[in-house]
Amino acid sequence: NIVSKNSNITTLVDLALLSYLKIIAKLSKLSHLKKYETNSKLINRIPNFAVRMGFGLHVGWGIEGAIGSMHKIDASYLSPNVNIAARLESCTRQYGIPLLISGQVYNMLSPIVQRYCREIDNIMVKGCLLYTSPSPRDLSTSRMPSSA
């Protein structure tokens, strides 16, 4: 059943986004990370230092492979889709927000979750011909209920 399959995918995409929001919330509350923000050595070298992580979410195919040598092997994920997610993550620094999702991810979200998203910009992904405008979005906290 196509409707059931699409409903399941939408639920999974909503839950994936929720898991990243939980990570962001948890990181902001970890006391041992907060200690770095008051470390005088760090503040002297980097004024207004704060521990921050950025996340870029995109959807698509990818290939997992082992890359390395006889002494060290790392898992790596390769595809234009992985590059888009990485580009979105790097854009979080430019926009000063912790999470960006692509237009493709946004289109897969449920309408209820889409209401909390706002379009940020249209970006050109360097070296990618397939997706030229991921239309990154973030979650607008001003639209969220105070109990969320």
Characterize this entry briefly.
By secondary structure, the protein is of the alpha+beta class. The protein has 6 helices and 6 strands.
Describe this protein's structure.
43% of the residues lie in helices and 16% in strands. The chain has 148 residues and is α+β, with helices and mostly antiparallel strands. The chain is globular. The model has no long low-confidence stretch (mean pLDDT 83).
The number of helical runs is 6
Low-confidence stretches: none
Main beta-sheet strand count, sense and barrel state? 2 strands, parallel
What's the pLDDT, averaged over the residues? 83
Proportion of residues in extended strands:
15-25%
Helix content: 40-55%
Order of helices and strands: HHHEEEHEHHEE
Alpha carbon gap, first and last residue: 33 Å
Give the overall silhouette: globular
Report strand order across the widest sheet. 1-4
How many DSSP E strands?
A: 6
Q: Rg from C-alpha positions?
A: 18 Å
Q: What structural category arises from helix and sheet content?
A: alpha+beta
Give the helices and strands, then pairings:
Elements: H1 2-29, H2 31-34, H3 40-45, E1 55-57, E2 63-68, E3 73-78, H4 80-95, E4 99-101, H5 103-108, H6 111-114, E5 117-119, E6 137-139
Parallel strand pairs: 1-4
Antiparallel strand pairs: 2-3, 5-6
